[in-house]
Design a protein that fits this description.
By secondary structure, the protein is of the alpha/beta class. The chain is 38% helix and 15% strand. It is built from 14 helices and 12 strands. The protein has a 7-stranded mixed beta sheet, with helices on both faces. The protein has a 5-stranded mixed beta sheet with strand order 8-9-12-11-10. α5 links the parallel β4 (143-149) and β5 (174-178). The longest helix has 21 residues, at 252-272. It is globular and about 70 Å long.
Length: 386
């Protein structure tokens, strides 16, 4: 069946599943074996059934599902979001390549780009994604790729994605986008013109805070290159995590749609509160890229961050008074989570690096869950009233 003609809500449940079903099972069995019988069939090395080669039925079904959700030719899963991100970057940059990269990035990606690329003989320059006129001056003969996030972590900046795709296409650069925060429910970058989409599948794709995984989607040609590199580096996802991810994906549309609603209500409530200095959420009209977000996205997502007038002391006081949110450094699950990025997602950066990115000591990031919106808003209101 051609699932590309079906809605996203249908694709998250059915796309990618093997037909006919394995032994008639509605749920794909967990292929826990590390050894599969080989009867002397001829073929390439990557055809040999082996978990590290990412070719178990569990891997293949997930790859097809991720591709269907991102409207891409092919997809694959990896052992973590960083495994997906680093492998995609290394495949795109090749030997001696130069990268153009967004300034605001997830802390792990920032560390890899700023601290590790040089040791591998690769280089980068940071671009201001709000100023397309400044990008051409950073191009080098070795520039091969441009890397951005659909919504940045943790300040929810929205890049000029149309300008990025046009700029890269004119110069034959590979475009890579981390779509973790938006998810395919709110934004599908391949259809928009991006070459490669990466995810921390730990987050929204799975949605239940019980596994670590990554995903990549794009053209069949690029996915072949990335898969070969991933097989060499060993970043394959174990079959039980594949099973959990496949199960989590089936509720993706329902979860994200509710998180869109809940986050917008919480953002509006916070923006009205005395003592809240700024709320970072693209669904608010005061957000500097609100109009762009309305044009690009089907929803504004479940992530927001905010700062209080009292800085770090006020942030600590709010954290101590909240009852529903769990203090945890991840995101995208059904439970509302709250964290202080300076000591979690961006703890590996120096104080100067954090300050330059706008990650202050008093910044709080919220991953809004699917609990009652009234309960979430009420809990934040009582915490801010103290």
């Amino acid at each position: 069946m051609n699932w590309s003609t079906r809605s996203l809500a249908t694709r998250v449940i059915h796309a990618g599943d093997p037909r006919p079903r394995i032994a008639g099972a509605l749920t794909i069995p967990i292929f826990q074996s590390s050894v599969f019988e080989h009867r002397g069939e001829e073929g390439v090395y990557e055809d040999v059934r082996y978990p590290r080669l990412n070719n178990l039925p569990n891997h293949e079904a997930l790859g097809r599902k991720v591709a269907a959700l991102e409207e891409a030719e092919a997809g694959l899963v990896a052992a973590s979001g960083m495994a997906a991100i680093t492998t995609a970057l290394l495949a795109a940059l090749g030997q001696g390549g130069h990268l153009l990269v967004q300034g605001q990035l997830y802390g792990g990606t920032h560390m890899f780009v700023t601290h590790t690329l040089a040791s591998l003989g690769l280089s980068y320059d940071v671009i201001d994604v709000q100023d397309p006129s400044s990008w051409a001056g950073l191009i080098r003969p070795t520039t091969r790729a441009i890397y951005v996030e659909s919504l940045t972590n943790p300040l929810l900046e929205v890049a000029d994605h149309g300008a990025i795709v046009r700029f890269a296409t004119e110069r034959s650069l590979v475009t890579i986008i981390d779509n973790t925060f938006a998810s395919p429910i709110n934004f599908r970058p391949v259809a928009f013109g991006y070459d490669l989409v990466v995810h921390s599948a730990t987050k929204y794709l799975n949605g239940h805070n019980d596994l670590v995984a990554g995903a990549v989607a794009g053209s069949a040609e690029w996915l072949r290159k990335i898969l070969l590199l991933q097989n060499e580096l060993g970043g394959s996802l174990d079959p039980h995590a594949c099973y959990l991810l496949n199960r989590g994906l089936k509720t993706l549309a329902l979860r994200v749609q509710q998180q869109n609603i809940n986050a917008l209500e919480l953002a509006r409530s916070l923006a009205r509160r005395e003592g809240v200095r700024v709320v970072h959420y693209p669904g608010l009209e005061a957000h500097p890229q609100h109009a762009r977000a309305r044009e690009l996205f089907d929803g504004f997502g479940g992530m927001l961050s905010f700062e209080l007038e009292g800085g770090l002391d006020a942030a600590r006081r709010v954290l101590s008074r909240l009852e529903i949110p769990v203090q945890g450094p991840s995101l995208g699950g059904v439970e509302t989570l709250i964290t202080r990025p300076a000591v979690t997602s961006h703890a590996g950066l120096s104080e100067n690096e954090r300050r330059r990115l706008g990650v202050t000591d008093g910044l709080l990031r919220v991953s809004v869950g699917v609990e009652s919106a009234a309960d979430i808003v009420g809990d934040f209101e009582q915490a801010l009233s103290g």
